[in-house]
Design a protein that fits this description.
It is a single chain. By secondary structure, the protein is an alpha/beta fold. The protein contains 13 helices and 8 strands. An 8-stranded parallel beta barrel has the order 1-2-3-4-5-6-7-8, surrounded by 5 helices.
Amino acid sequence: MPIFTGSGVAIVTPFNEDETINYPELKRLIEFQIENSTDAIIICGTTGEASTLTDEEQIECIKFTVEVVNKRVPVIAGAGSNHTAHAIELAQGCERVGADAVLLVTPYYNKTTQKGLIKHYKMIAESINIPIILYNVPSRTGLNITPQTCYELSKIKNIVGIKEASGNLSQVAEIAALCGEDFHIYSGNDDQILPVLSLGGLGVISVLANIMPKETHDMVASYLEGDSKKATKMQLEYLHLINELFSETNPIPVKTALNLMDFNVGNCKMPLCEMDNKNLENLKEAMKDAGLLK
């Protein structure tokens, strides 16, 4: 069985002015997501600014999320690192506090070979018992998981799927062909939800879902229930907003959008800073068009 089918939100981490985690607001965000049909919570990923959290903050944030969610939907915890031993420690911490699965981004900056990738993920997989979703986002890491490497990793029992954010649909198709239906593919790009579903994907790990959880869930559900016309209409209708959510480095625009919607998620941590004024105005217009602002 897949960890989830549908729309999983790559949820932001709200911060107080002193850059500590704003736990009351995180609880509010989680409840907002669950009330609006989100199918999984992905905590402490890229959108959650995990790279700016201490290990203690990251594990505590995951523990809090697990407790608030209380088994209503799966909780998938970010545990990636460019240091294999560190990734193992994080993954074990996620398992210890009750995460249902971990999301593991490829090693960044120092990178590695495809052989090194297989060894890296194999070592982590052998250190935990919960499922692993690979996360392929070469635009941020400088490293691509090739379809053949993905196939080799799919043979490992608890490596069950991939968040594919390469933007390369031919690669997604090859992964699907090589790995088969038992290996679960999730879109990592909100502008490619429908194309990935058409290749056998089970859903999306979404930034858009932070501000439009019900709509993102409905888009995926419509497609999976056979109403591809409705799903396609929704994908195209939200394309302008999706593009504006990525007009600057994620999660700058989506945290800005949430604050505009009267959530209190605070600023991103440096070196991520406030939006350029022109991009901000474009984001506001897209939000108005989507009915999120008056």
